[in-house]
Amino acid sequence: MTGPRPLPALADIIPYVPGEKPKGSGGYKLSSNENPLGCSPAARAAMIAAAGGLEIYPDGSAFELRSAIAEAYGLDRDRILVGAGSDEIFQLLGRAYLAPGDEIIQTEHGFLVYQLVAQQAGAHTISAPETELTMSVDAILERVTGRTRIVFLANPNNPTGTYLPFDEIQRLHAGLREDILLVLDGAYAEFVRRNDFSAGIELAGSAPNVLMTRTFSKIHGLASLRVGWGYGPASVIGALHKVRGPFNVSGPAQAAATAAIRDRKFLEASTDHNSTELARLTEALSALGYDVVPSVANFALVRFTSPAEAQAMDAHTRARGVVLRRLEAYGLPAALRVSVGTVAANDALIAAFEAFEQA
After folding, report:
1. N or C, which end of the chain is more exposed by having fewer CB within 10 Å?
2. What pLDDT digit, counting tens, does each position of 153-203 carry?
3. Domain boundary among 243, 262, 281
4. Are strands 291-293 and 299-303 parallel, antiparallel or unpaired?
5. What is the C-alpha separation between 266 and 75, in angstroms, rounded?
């Protein structure tokens, strides 16, 4: 008796493994790019208030949340889709646009979930090489075939922290056929302070084949509630509505996200903290002789001389209660990703690197 057999496309799938937590009490988790300031007090209060109606189904249209997002960014509410994290929106894209034998393109060190979405649909993932850990428009365009259906681009990219300026995004879009969907994943967009950067709202608002996604897990600090959103053409949003669950985002999550996006003070405090502490971490680790890749997100990629040195540093920091992100799954075995934490967490991280040098 072998029991029911899953779809053949699932045979080679390796489930996504999230960042680990410190063992026991205390310690610092710098492995998941979470907001070290927590979340907006207004968001927490809204979630608690919404918990008074847990027996009621949530608003399947997420009307209030979509209205708040539209107000914050000046968008058409009807072209906004809300999901259980941006991860769910990627899953919906796989259901709506990918069939066995199709292809997606992502960059060499792109977010692992894109490949999982393709595998679940029986589609193939084509990896475009990066240049100095930065996405290459030319490499992506060179890999477009007649089977290409979606190009996934995280901008800024996780785990490298690098980005493409808006003129390069425009060049990429101009080089794609209209039947290829360009997905601009802006999970870390709010952290970027560069004049040449755009998360892609303009393209998503004007092109028939561009979808921009965002998340409430990072800058808004609502990772536990799982809320994300997408903005794009009415045809794409309509297709995704056809494959999403009718109550895919809980009522407390919607209430918290609605309050969060309206709390500009918390958003500014989060970006200010990140800018200051990212610069401090980068300077301190670079001064110790480590290769820190310039980042515009809320994390930094630290490269070592070998995979063995990266593993040794990982073990060393863990022993001191500081958990970082190993990157073998991303094809970067000689690197660790460091999330920007609280001042105390960052102090502990710097001290751990200094102690490693002295060991």
Report:
1. N
2. 999 999 999 999 999 999 999 999 999 999 999 999 999 999 999 999 999
3. 262
4. antiparallel
5. 22
Contact call for residues 42 and 222 (beta carbons, < 8 A): no
272-292: average pLDDT: 97
Indicate whether 292 pLDDT > 80.
yes
What is the residue range of 340's domain? 19-38+265-358
Q: The whole model's pTM is what?
A: 0.94
Distance, in Å, from the CA atom of 7 to the CA atom of 4, rounded to the nearest integer, reads 10
What is the pLDDT, as a whole number, of residue 23?
A: 77
Q: Which of 337, 326, 331 is nearest to 278 (CA)?
A: 337
Same domain, 25 and 79: no
Helix 251-262 × helix 63-73 angle, to 10°: 20
- Do 334 and 279 lie in one domain? The reply is yes
Is position 258 within any domain?
yes
Spatial separation of the C-alpha atoms in residues 216 and 261, rounded to whole Å: 8
Residue 215 corresponds to which amino acid? T
Q: Is residue 108 part of a domain?
A: yes
As beta bridge partners, residue 338 has 300
CA distance 300 to 278: 8
Q: pLDDT band at residue 21, thresholds of 50, 70 and 90?
A: confident
Which of 200, 232, 262 is where one domain is finished?
Answer: 262
**Of 305 and 9, the one with more pLDDT:** 305
Q: Which residue has the tokens 């968001």?
A: 43
Across-strand partners of 184? 153, 212
Task: Name all contacts of 205-210 with Cβ < 8 Å and 24+ positions apart.
Answer: 205/75, 205/76, 205/79, 205/231, 207/173, 207/182, 207/233, 208/178, 208/233, 208/235, 209/173, 209/176, 209/178, 209/179, 209/180, 209/181, 209/182, 209/233, 209/236, 210/173, 210/181, 210/182, 210/183, 210/184
What is the token pair recorded at 283? 């300077």
- DSSP lists the bridge partners of residue 339 as 299
Q: Which residues contact 80 (CB under 8 A, 6 or more apart)?
A: 66, 69, 70, 229, 230, 231, 237
Q: What is the pLDDT of residue 359?
A: 64
Please give the single-letter amino acid code of residue 148.
T
Could you give the C-alpha distances from 351 to 110, 132, 201, 310, 317, in angstroms and in order? 30, 28, 40, 17, 9
